[in-house]
Prior knowledge:
Blueprint: E1 3-8, H1 23-39, E2 44-47, H2 60-69, E3 74-81, H3 87-101, E4 105-110, H4 134-148, E5 183-186, H5 190-198, E6 202-205, E7 208-210, H6 217-235, E8 243-251, H7 255-261, E9 270-273, E10 279-282, E11 285-288, H8 290-298, H9 301-305, E12 308-312, H10 319-337
Parallel strand pairs: 1-2, 1-12, 2-3, 3-4, 4-5, 5-6, 6-8, 8-11, 8-12
Antiparallel strand pairs: 7-10, 9-10
Helix pairs in contact: 1-2, 1-10, 2-3, 3-4, 5-6, 8-10
Amino acid sequence: MKSIGFLSFGHWTPSPYSKTRTGADALLQSIELAGAAEELEVDGAYFRVHHFARQLASPFPLLAAIGARTSKIEVGTGVIDMRYENPLYMAETAGAADLISGGRLQLGISRGSPEQVIDGWRYFGFQPAEGSDEQEMARRHTEVFLEVLKGEGFAEPNPRPMFANPPGPLRLEPYSEGLRERIWWGAGSDRTAQWAAEKGMNLQSSTLKDDETGEPLHVQQRKQIEAFRAAWKEAGHDREPRVSVSRSILPLVTDEDRAYFGDDTGDQDQVGWIDDKTRAVFGRSFTGEPDVLVDLLAGDEAIATADTVLLTVPNQLGVDYNVHVLETILKDVAPALGWR
């Protein structure tokens, strides 16, 4: 059995061929898709965060809106770039969104990927400490965020406050019990997966990973997951972690499906450079008739090892089409693979 969610990048473009033409379209359609997915008994609605792009950015208003409109589905991110985040303000907004959703928030965070602008975090008021770099800055923001999510008081109260305080140092409010255990780290390498385990975060392994061995992506991800779980065990945490992998899965069952994706050529992993130092492997798309998809996905070692599968959706094709894709996977693919 797998927990199955969708992952939307929230693209929008004014192109006449897009059904998501404005930022408002992207946000409102995301809320509508999450509600429809809950009716299909999809387990999670996850959203990618990118800055300076025609995509979803600030996630917490969206997550709170979905939380208020739904009752069961997990609501999350995959991922928030911690280079851009004030960790204390983030803890407040995350706590509020989690309380609105009734404790269903699943926050994927990471050090981020190459963005639309050079050093975009500078415009948000952040700068790596002397002798450090942006990756270390993201990890430092993360450590502060995780610490304040414990709910322990740390701020000295005003002796003459406007409102009465509880005794002792004050914590951030609103505080949501249990959110600390629902933080995930989007790891691009085996080393960062091990670091996430040491910090007690769940693991998100995406369709992009540092190419550390030259093996297919799913094999490298399986090894990454094994390294994460070994580090988790060594750290001695008292709960079982969750692990997700993301996949682009597009069943071809209608003429519309075949018109959109019948000529898809992304049936092999791709290797490229995401910056001047990092060679990465990009995951393939899985496109075909449901029985073909079952055969292909049955050999995916990372999916077999993970407990959660996030299905990337082509959000610009509109809510109805994406509901069709999710429903087809749930009915015609997932049961044959033992995911349902």
